[in-house]
Write a structure and sequence with these properties.
heterotrimer; A alpha/beta (341); B mainly alpha (280); C mainly alpha (266); B: 280 residues; mainly alpha; 11 helices; C: elongated
Chain lengths: 341, 280, 266
């Protein structure tokens, strides 16, 4: 297989912050790579380097066979980009936006119009076609944004957090659209904060944290490393958490989290075992005051992170690049579609 | 406040509320609501360079430019232009204040602030009155700046201290009436560009087709009656009567007062209607 | 992917596409349209009826229109330019510009498109003001070639003002700041000129300012082109001023654009 995107030891610093700290990744042609990481892990910086917006301080990268630093024009001719911002003209209609991007991709006037009509159809945007983009819902705007980035079929498509801020239904619709693009042979690099999204869409997943790769593999492989399902016992009180974690120590490796305690689960039998252990402990006189909830759940990004890096992917853990760099530019670190809609 | 936080963290949220905190139901307190919301607007204004510029810098720039460009030709016509001009730039500053209040009102209606305030125990007219109070404060500030600069350029109150005290009173009355109307406009239109356009379409003809910057005699004779009678000219007449040495006072004040009363009634009716709709 | 079909930057086509977009947005934004079309007309009508008799006692309103029309043409062009600058800042901030830069689009097309659209808008302003001004008393008495020069000169000067606006846009934090910086500057230039009153009627200290003020220079040249008299010197002066603005602000704006969009991409 050939690599459509290949990055080798990319470094990018903003002041004291190393947004990319030796990042390497590879996307095989015709596949989807999910670039997964918490807010501020360096995902957007990575996209900006790969899409020729930023020059790396060190390392090299090729996209569609062209070096991003040496041959930016060739890279630009071969890619499509959908950013977090849904960068469309709110004063233009959906159709006009598509025609504009088509013309900028050198389709020619008539061809740009024909292609716009085709894309409106394909992305179920015909109803919105002649409305101003500013009046469209967040989900519709993201679909339009996606359509705008393939006015000329790209070899590689970059999707930077395509569903951040979308409601579940819009998210499903966008996932469907991404799958179709892949089926048509486009290589896709997708960043996301949601494990579920990577799980649904990506052939392979690269997890990054603080500008570095912490794990790489298929979603299945990664989940196996985390251990599949997790049994989570929600306990508000810290002393109670300690007691619970000691009690359940016999069942497996227990992690103490800010909101409770969790341990790997093999299935419903883990749940039964946990309840039995806790019940017996209580009868034996252990002063566990209050347990708020017990349940099985699929591993979340938090679990993956905890397992792979030893620290949770919670907001206070992100003293990192993107957020700080964005603040420097004076815009919110994580703009979302809800604000606009 | 801080003492309640550890209690919440300790998980007693489900228990009975601590006495004296959640136990007392907040009651609408009209004056407090208005003061709090006025403070909010003043705080927001002080952080927006554009609003400082429109309140202070722009009226000042206009005052200086009109004075510089036209004082010679005015003197040739027998007019001491700074005395004539000052009421005009004060009126202009009130217009700028009104235009910004329309934008701020529309922003509050658009951004959901009004709706949110409606769900809280805040007295109904407080959002509009808070904005009005903030704008009046800002008008006073720009009046102070304009008077100081005017004095430096030779402006004097020729009618003594009592008449001079009437000057800010008339200005504030005009500001209150105009800003109320513009708040109503902002709440009713609720589209920022359209609000800007509408307020400009009011501002230009009323300001320039008045005796504010030039005496009515300079206008073509067919236009003169309109120029003389319209409210901006009438307010300018009242302000000038208060700065002049020996002008008749009662008539211009009464006419201006009648106009402002009418304008105020329209503004209050419009604003209360629009406030109800904007928050719904 | 066939390598033959690779799209490449096309400076002319890209600029036209960006200009088309800017014009379309401009025509849809009532505020810009009002500023470009109605603002100069309102000034022309209202300043004339209120100040004509004071500035030229004894002369008619039509005489004042004849002298003051060039200023109002310039003000219409000038006060619309902050809108362009503000829109440019918005493009840089909301990611639109970054997106264009990931496409095979000529690097300067976004700026060039803005300037081109600006020029088209200036042409509309000039046409409207002249069409309304002629029945009110404005006269071309120096022949057709001079009249064409009268129509083109503010277009060239407007180009310079457009670049000035873009230069400010590259330095500004947000679009509000752009407007707040440009408007007072343009006001001072408009007023402290020979556009509304004769130079000898300005205070002594203002007269030398009004003499070198580019607005006065262009206004004098436009008057000469409309009414005759010595045209060569004022027109050359006006072209020099326009050239200085276009080249000076243009170079700095382009440089600022390159570094600024790099910084924002972070």
């Amino acid at each position: 297989m050939t690599a459509a995107v290949e990055a080798d030891a990319l470094v990018k610093t903003f002041g004291d912050i190393r947004a990319l700290d030796g990042l390497s990744l590879r996307v095989e042609a015709g596949t989807i790579l999910g670039l997964l990481g918490p807010n501020g892990a360096g995902k957007t910086t990575a996209i900006n380097v790969l899409t020729t917006l930023l020059s790396p301080d060190a390392g090299r990268a090729t996209v569609a066979g062209h070096d991003v630093v040496e041959q930016p024009a060739l890279v630009r001719a071969a890619i499509g980009v959908t950013g977090q911002f849904a960068a469309l003209d709110s004063g233009l209609t959906a159709r006009e936006n598509l025609v504009l991007f088509g013309r900028l991709m050198k389709l020619g006037r008539a061809e740009a119009r024909r292609r716009a009509a085709e894309l409106l159809e394909r992305f179920t945007l015909t109803e919105a076609a002649d409305q101003r983009t500013g009046t469209l819902s967040g989900g519709t705007r993201r679909r339009l944004d996606l359509a705008a980035s393939i006015t000329r079929e790209p070899a590689v498509l970059f999707l930077d957090e395509p569903t951040t801020g979308l409601d579940p239904r819009s998210r499903l619709a966008l996932w469907e659209a991404v799958r179709e693009l892949r089926a048509s042979g486009i290589t896709i690099l997708l960043t996301t904060q949601y494990l579920e999204e990577a799980d649904e869409l990506a052939d392979r997943v690269t997890i990054i944290d603080r500008g570095r790769v912490v794990a790489e593999g298929t979603a299945e492989e990664l989940k196996r490393r985390v251990g599949g399902a997790v049994c989570h016992i929600a306990v508000a009180d810290a002393a109670d958490r300690q007691l619970v974690s000691e009690t359940l120590g016999t069942l497996g490796p227990v992690s103490v989290l800010p909101d409770g305690v969790s341990l790997p689960a093999t299935g419903p039998e883990t749940l039964v075992a946990v309840v039995r252990e806790l019940d017996e402990a209580r009868h034996a006189g252990l002063p566990i005051a209050r347990i708020d909830d017990i349940g099985l759940r699929r591993p979340t990004l938090d679990d993956v992170f905890l397992a792979l890096t030893g620290h949770p992917a919670t907001p206070d853990a992100q003293a990192d690049g993107e957020a700080a760099a964005s603040d420097e530019a004076g815009r919110p670190a994580r703009p979302t579609a809800e604000v606009a809609s | 406040m801080t003492s309640t936080i550890p209690a919440a963290v300790a998980g007693t949220l489900a228990g009975p509320p601590p006495p004296g905190v959640a136990g007392t139901r907040p009651r609408p307190a009209f004056a407090t609501d208005v003061a709090v919301l006025a403070e909010r607007h003043l705080r927001l204004m002080s952080r927006r360079p554009a609003s400082i510029i429109s309140a202070i810098v722009l009226p000042l720039v206009f005052a200086l430019l009109f004075f510089t460009v036209f004082s010679r030709v005015m003197r040739r016509g027998g007019l001491d232009y700074i005395d004539y001009l000052l009421p005009a730039v004060v009126i202009q500053a009130v217009f700028f204040t009104g235009m910004s209040s329309a934008i701020l009102a529309a922003e509050d209606a658009l951004g959901g602030t009004l709706r949110r305030l409606r769900t809280m125990s805040v007295s109904r007219p407080a959002p509009a009155l808070g904005l009005l109070a903030a704008e009046l404060t800002r008008s006073l500030l720009s009046l102070g700046v304009l008077l100081a600069i005017g004095a430096a350029l030779g402006f004097r109150f020729h009618g003594g201290p009592w008449k001079a005290l009437g000057f800010p009173v008339v200005m504030l009355a005009f500001a209150a009436a105009l800003v109320t109307c513009f708040i109503a406009l902002g709440l009713a239109i609720r589209r920022l560009e359209a609000v800007t356009t509408a307020t400009n379409l009011i501002y230009f003809p009323f300001m320039l087709l008045s005796s504010a910057f030039t005496p009515a005699a300079a206008f073509p004779s067919w236009l003169r009656p309109v120029v003389e009678q319209q409210p901006v000219s009438r307010v300018a007449d009242a302000l000038r009567a208060l700065t002049a040495h020996d002008a008749a006072l009662a008539r211009p004040l009464l006419i201006a007062g009648a106009w402002l009363l009418g304008l105020g009634v329209v503004g209050v009716l419009g604003a209360s209607r629009a406030l109800g709709r904007a928050a719904a | 992917m066939s390598q033959v079909a690779l799209p490449r930057p096309a400076p002319v086509g890209d600029t036209l596409a960006m200009a088309g977009r800017a014009l379309r947005l401009m025509l849809r934004d009532p505020a810009t349209f009002v500023l470009a079309v109605f603002f100069p007309l309102i000034l022309l009508l209202l300043i004339t009826v209120s100040f004509a008799k004071i500035v030229y006692p004894g002369a008619g309103y039509d005489d004042y229109v004849d002298v003051s029309l060039p200023l109002f043409v310039l003000m219409g062009i000038a006060f619309a330019s902050p809108f362009t600058a503000a829109a440019t800042v918005t493009d840089l901030r909301d990611g639109f510009d970054a997106r264009i830069r990931t496409m095979p689009v000529s690097a300067l097309a976004p700026l060039a498109g803005r300037v081109l659209a600006d020029t088209a808008r200036s042409a509309i302003t000039i046409a409207v003001v002249v069409v309304v001004g002629v029945p009110l008393g404005f006269r071309f008495t120096a022949g057709p070639w001079a009249a064409i020069g009268f129509l083109l000169l503010p277009l060239v000067f407007g180009l310079g003002l457009g670049f000035l606006g873009l230069l400010v846009a590259m330095r500004a934090r947000d679009s509000e700041t752009v407007v707040a910086v440009l408007n007072p500057l343009l006001l001072v230039c408009s007023f402290l000129s020979t556009g509304m009153v004769q130079r000898s009627d300005l205070p002594g200290w203002v007269q030398p300012i009004a003499r070198v003020n580019p607005f006065s220079v262009v206004i004098e040249a436009m008057r000469a082109l409309a009414h005759g008299g010595a045209t060569t010197r004022p027109v050359i002066e006006a072209l020099v001023w326009s050239g200085v603005l276009i080249v000076g602000c243009g170079v700095l704006a382009v440089r600022g654009y390159r570094t600024r969009s790099d910084r924002l991409a972070a």
